[in-house]
Amino acid sequence: MRAIEVENLSRAFNGLRAVDDISFAVDAGEIFGFLGHNGAGKTTTIRMLSGQLLPSSGGGRVAGCDIVAEQQRLKPLIGVVSEHQNLYERMSGRENLEFAARLYGIDLQRIDAALKQVDLLDRAQDKVQNYSNGMKQRLLIARSILHGPRIIFLDEPTRGLDPIVGREIRRLIVDMSKQGVTIFLTTHYMDEADQLCDRVAFLSEGRIVALDTPDNLKTAHGQHQVNVTLDNGECVSIALDGADAGKELQQLLSNGQVRTLHSAEATLEDVFVQLAGRRLSE
């Protein structure tokens, strides 16, 4: 079953195409990574798929709803966590969720369950202005799951967070996926995408340049090699795809020069640089 289906989707601003004729599908329950540089079109795509922005051409269906003709029917079926923490700082965590619940006609009894899921129940009465960045991010996720959506769009959910908090957010993402929620994730962290995502799409200048599982992309586009440290401290890399790889390695071993030997596979970031032209952080 498809949670998201996109066909020839485009969006232009002042004649410039931010999203340029992209097509893809996301299966129900999948964690789908949508990766690209700043300005590649990731957030614009999320805004179109979540009914916040009309496409210039093309279209799609999200949770069975047409993203142009059925925006009102779509909204209760999805959750969105934007890259900006749009919370009410002077209100408590619970009051933020109560406000959202009343605004969308959600049963207030869901609030405790959402707070518990993101491990904020014991801090629910604290004002959000006293929350750490990680706590605010967890509260945003709690707000996005309050109504039990089928699909959640997460736009850079771990950006700027320390490693421990980032790990907590990733745990929440996995937990939501295990509960059957489809996750549409943008992130600048390739390790995070490699760890979490069932499939990833690489976006460059508004176009999808690759779409597959992380493992398949690394196998298809990465170079496999062995890193050898010699007794004199010198490091030698031998590409296993090379015709003379076996001879080179055998010669080093037979000469007794090898101190350590490690296999090295391409990373998802290596593949992204190859296909999209530069690192995400650049």
Report on the structure:
The chain has 282 residues and is an alpha/beta fold. The protein has two domains: 2-218, P-loop containing nucleotide triphosphate hydrolases (Rossmann fold); 223-264, no CATH class. Helix content is 33%, strand content 29%. It is built from ten helices and 13 strands. A six-stranded mixed β-sheet has the order 6-7-8-3-9-10, with helices on both faces. The chain has a four-stranded antiparallel β-sheet with strand order 2-1-4-5. The chain has a three-stranded antiparallel β-sheet with strand order 12-11-13, with helices on one face. The model has no long low-confidence stretch (mean pLDDT 88).
Query: Largest sheet, order of strands side by side?
Result: 6-7-8-3-9-10
CATH architecture of the largest domain: 3-Layer(aba) Sandwich
- On the 0-100 scale, what is the average pLDDT? 88
Number of helices: 10
Element string (H = helix, E = strand): EEEHEEHEHHHEHEHEEHEEHEH
Task: Report the CATH topology name of the largest domain.
Answer: Rossmann fold
Shape: globular
- Tell me the radius of gyration: 22 Å
CATH superfamily of the largest domain: P-loop containing nucleotide triphosphate hydrolases
Please indicate the percent range of residues in DSSP E strands (runs of 2 or more): 25-35%
Summed up, the domain count is 2
The separation of the N and C termini measures: 37 Å
The percent range for helix content is 25-40%
CATH hierarchy class name of the largest domain: Alpha Beta
Class of secondary structure makeup: alpha/beta
